[in-house]
């Protein structure tokens, strides 16, 4: 169940894919009762049928997708066909006994269903509703189809990312969705606090493009004050040098080093043994190091190549120079610091998936709040009985009739996602595949992991 800070808050979760499930996972981690609503015809296909344990879709692939299990741990799950008016009427009954509705459909969907904020206020006046979308629910572009590449591109983030002689680059892993989801969770909790003080509900319109812009505020301010766009700098920095990602001893091993001022430069010199090149005039101060950073990077990497990435990090940190080993996903699962902090929690996902370590969506530890591992993400329709029978008081006959007419229940008509082509990964060196990895996980997290 995670923490209990939001115990007693019930959330109706109509979100899918990344941004919305991220927001509602944070709420679940804080103790809210989050009810994820899907239907057999519109299940969360991208995350439910993607990246399978042991690369095996199994007989129920929609219950084995690891992305779904990670983003939806701690939530309840029901199958309710919102495309039917009877399904929407059941949703309205749930609104009467809930505190929050969160959705990330395109702006026209909820109003088309008769479930916009003003409609929901007629049902429960103090309801808090959060809408997450790419460009927001009003404005000339509100109906544009928008996913992460568009949000990041239109925010200026893509234009400033990459190398000077290369095209702009996307962030790589739905960064904009994580910004949107975390922002949505934060503003929702502010609305709940406001409701507690005033008794009034709230509608919150959160735009992913604007969430991304707000995270590059200094770049926006620079453009406003100095009428210039930032140059793409790759791993370099406008004032720090050396500053970058340097190859180390080993296969595709790297470390990051950032020397911000002359004091850190003196520490860096001591750390690398003060070789003659570090005392050359071309590296005497910050501006000189900036002018000669290409030559400096070559010399720094010649030193890092002689050492293991963890050794470089340790040497630099002991000298007082910011540095960090570049870790893969495999490294992080086995990282002793993250294990000590309990960042990965072993959860029994059931359904042939078993016990697996997954990351906490909320990277925070409270000093005065107990925490237990959250329940696993729901199998499709797992909590229908609790919600429809226990919360809404439906009889077995009523539920069966609704199921027969396709309002409740059903099986997702999702084709299984294609298993990962591990032989191509190994051939193209586009990732890693380690047949002994599970054994190492078991050593760290227990025999069932």
CATH architecture classification of the largest domain: 3-Layer(aba) Sandwich
Q: How many H/I helices? A: 20
Strand element count? 11
By CATH, the topology of the largest domain is: Rossmann fold
What share of the residues lie within helices?
25-40%
**What global shape is seen?**
globular
Given the helix and strand composition, which structural class is it?
Answer: alpha/beta
Rg (C-alpha, Å):
25 Å
How many individual domains? 2
Low-confidence stretches: none
Strand proportion: 5-15%
How would a textbook summarize the main sheet? Answer: 6 strands, parallel
Span between N and C termini?
A: 19 Å
Strand order in the largest sheet: 3-2-1-4-5-6
Question: Can you walk through the features of this model?
Answer:
Helices cover 39% and strands 12% of the residues. It folds into 2 domains: 10-215 and 341-418, Rossmann fold; 243-327, formyl-coa transferase, domain 3, CATH 3.30.1540. Helix 1 packs across helix 8 (175-198), helix 7 (148-155) packs across helix 9 (208-214) and helix 8 crosses helix 9. With 449 residues, the chain is an alpha/beta fold. The protein has a 6-stranded parallel β-sheet. Strand 10 and strand 11 (355-359) form a beta hairpin. The relative contact order is 0.14. It is globular, with a radius of gyration of 25 Å.
Helices and strands in order:
Layout: E1 10-13, H1 19-29, E2 33-38, H2 45-48, H3 66-71, E3 76-79, H4 85-96, E4 100-103, H5 108-112, H6 117-123, E5 128-133, H7 148-155, H8 175-198, E6 202-207, H9 208-214, H10 217-226, E7 243-247, E8 254-258, H11 262-271, H12 286-291, H13 293-304, H14 309-319, E9 323-325, H15 329-333, H16 336-340, E10 344-348, E11 355-359, H17 384-391, H18 396-404, H19 422-428, H20 437-445
Parallel strand pairs: 1-2, 1-4, 2-3, 4-5, 5-6
Antiparallel strand pairs: 7-8, 8-9, 10-11
Helix pairs in contact: 1-8, 7-9, 8-9, 11-14
């Amino acid at each position: 169940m995670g923490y209990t800070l939001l115990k007693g808050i019930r959330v109706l979760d109509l979100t899918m894919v990344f941004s919305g499930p991220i927001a509602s996972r944070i709420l679940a981690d804080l103790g809210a009762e989050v009810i994820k609503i899907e239907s057999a015809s519109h299940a969360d296909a991208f995350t439910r049928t993607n990246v399978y344990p042991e690369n095996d879709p199994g007989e129920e692939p929609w219950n084995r997708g690891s992305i779904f299990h990670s983003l939806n741990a701690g939530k309840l799950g029901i199958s309710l066909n919102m495309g039917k008016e009877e399904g929407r009427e059941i949703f309205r009954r749930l609104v009467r006994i809930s505190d929050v509705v969160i959705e990330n459909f395109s702006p026209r969907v909820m109003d088309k269903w008769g479930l916009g904020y003003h409609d929901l206020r007629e049902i429960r006046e103090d309801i808090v509703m959060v809408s997450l979308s790419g460009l927001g629910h009003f404005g000339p572009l509100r109906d544009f189809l928008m996913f992460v590449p568009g949000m990041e591109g239109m925010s200026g983030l893509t234009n400033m990312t990459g190398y000077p002689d290369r095209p702009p680059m996307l962030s790589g892993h739905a960064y904009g969705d994580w910004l949107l989801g975390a922002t949505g969770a934060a503003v929702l909790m502010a609305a709940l606090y406001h409701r507690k003080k005033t008794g009034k509900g709230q509608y919150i319109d959160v735009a992913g493009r604007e969430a991304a812009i707000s995270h590059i505020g200094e770049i926006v301010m620079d453009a406003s004050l100095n009428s210039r766009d930032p140059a793409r700098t790759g791993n370099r920095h406008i004032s720090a040098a050396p500053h970058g990602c340097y190859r180390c001893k080993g296969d595709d091993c790297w470390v990051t080093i950032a020397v911000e001022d002359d004091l850190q430069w003196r520490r860096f010199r001591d750390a690398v043994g003060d070789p003659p090149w570090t005392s050359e005039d071309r590296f005497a101060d910050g501006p000189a190091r900036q002018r000669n950073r290409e030559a400096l990077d070559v010399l720094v990497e010649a030193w890092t190549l002689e050492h293991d990435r963890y050794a470089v990090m340790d040497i630099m940190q002991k000298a007082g120079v910011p540095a960090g080993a570049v870790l893969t996903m495999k490294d992080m699962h086995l990282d002793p610091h993250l294990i000590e902090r309990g960042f990965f929690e072993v959860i029994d996902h059931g359904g042939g998936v078993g016990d697996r370590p997954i990351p906490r969506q909320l990277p925070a530890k409270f000093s005065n709040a107990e925490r237990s591992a959250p329940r696993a993400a729901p199998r499709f329709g797992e909590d229908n009985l609790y919600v429809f029978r226990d919360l809404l008081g439906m009889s077995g006959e009523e539920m069966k009739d609704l199921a027969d007419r396709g309002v409740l229940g059903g099986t997702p008509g999702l084709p299984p996602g294609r298993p990962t082509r591990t032989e191509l990964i190994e051939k193209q060196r586009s990732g890693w595949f380690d047949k002994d990895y599970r054994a190492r996980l078991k050593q760290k997290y227990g025999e069932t992991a």
